[in-house]
């Protein structure tokens, strides 16, 4: 399982001819210029700016999903309103809807709003609780919380929104962190959506620039390509390692138990 990762890191230090001709894991000679070329980025845009663009999009998506999905999950899990059951079933059904089925209508809407070639198409839907999987995840977690806590808060004068902020939300931290981790990883690796909506190199994310970096090269620059791949992989690994404990806790205590 770890061999492809080790091969990726080792290949980022190999010369181009050794990448193609040799099957050895360790490089025969270290080619530090691969990382120098990768840090130059694409068309004058440094790798640090590309990294910042990726963090901006992924961070906005995480914030949007955590806020909107937790609010929607609280409504489905704790509040009583008409059509709650059919609406929840309809939301669950959207999980089976292919992304490609809504791709063209979404593009037309964002194009008419003048948001093409901006980060809004990747971030704005996250603030509208469009990821039904995370709503379902948090709903299952909230249903396991004792209702007596909210009843005690209601006796003390808390309304639904204040009970959500003061009582339910702190107890839902494992599910929220699970949502944040998956949202960050999926948004960071979302090449297709970024390819459709972003045109200018100054706005490219690191994932999108990786493909453009290879295409823009007049020769097979395998070494710099793998070096930039290491830059793209490192934030995900660090993010996962930092919140791994909460991820396991959230998956164990939510409705997704295998």
Summarize the structure.
This protein is mainly α and 258 residues long. 69% of the residues lie in helices and 0% in strands.
Write structural notes for this entry.
The radius of gyration is 22 Å and the shape is elongated. The chain has 15 helices and no strands. The two termini are 21 Å apart. Helix 9 runs antiparallel to helix 10 and helix 11 crosses helix 15. Helices cover 69% and strands 0% of the residues. The model has no long low-confidence stretch (mean pLDDT 86). The protein is mostly helical.
Topology at a glance:
Elements lengths: L2 H9 L4 H6 L11 H7 L7 H32 L5 H10 L5 H14 L7 H4 L8 H11 L4 H9 L4 H12 L1 H16 L2 H7 L8 H11 L5 H21 L1 H10 L5
Distance between the termini: 21 Å
Average pLDDT confidence is 86
General form:
elongated
Rg over CA atoms, rounded to whole Å, is 22 Å
How many strands, what sense, and barrel or not for the largest sheet? none
Number of helices: 15
How many DSSP-defined strands?
0
Given helix and strand content, the structural type is mainly alpha
The helical percent reads 55-70%
Strand proportion:
under 5%
Unreliable spans are: none
Order of helices and strands: HHHHHHHHHHHHHHH
What are the key terms here?
258 residues, 15 helices, mainly alpha, elongated, 69% helix
């Amino acid at each position: 399982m770890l061999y492809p990762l080790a091969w990726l890191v080792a290949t980022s230090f190999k010369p181009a001819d050794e990448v193609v001709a040799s099957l050895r894991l360790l490089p025969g000679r270290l080619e530090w210029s691969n990382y120098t070329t990768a840090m130059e980025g694409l068309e004058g845009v440094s790798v640090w700016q590309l990294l910042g663009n990726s963090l901006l999009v992924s961070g906005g998506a995480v914030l949007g999903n955590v806020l909107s999905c937790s609010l929607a999950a609280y409504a489905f899990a704790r509040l009583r309103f008409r059509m709650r059951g059919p609406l929840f079933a309809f939301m669950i059904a959207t999980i089976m809807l292919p992304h490609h089925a809504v791709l063209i209508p979404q593009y037309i809407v964002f194009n008419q709003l003048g948001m093409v070639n901006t980060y809004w198409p990747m971030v704005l839907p996250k603030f509208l609780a469009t990821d039904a999987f995370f709503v379902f995840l948090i709903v299952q977690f909230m249903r396991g919380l004792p209702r007596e806590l909210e009843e005690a808060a209601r006796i003390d004068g808390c309304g639904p929104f204040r009970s959500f902020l003061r009582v339910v939300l702190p107890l839902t931290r494992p599910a929220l962190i699970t949502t944040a981790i998956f949202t960050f990883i999926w948004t960071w690796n979302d090449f297709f959506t970024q390819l459709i909506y972003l045109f200018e190199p100054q706005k490219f994310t690191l994932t999108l620039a990786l493909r453009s970096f290879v295409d823009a090269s007049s020769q097979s620059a395998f070494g710099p390509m793998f070096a930039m791949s290491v830059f793209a992989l490192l934030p995900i690994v660090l993010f996962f390692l930092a919140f791994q404990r909460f991820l396991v806790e959230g998956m164990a205590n939510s409705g997704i138990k295998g």
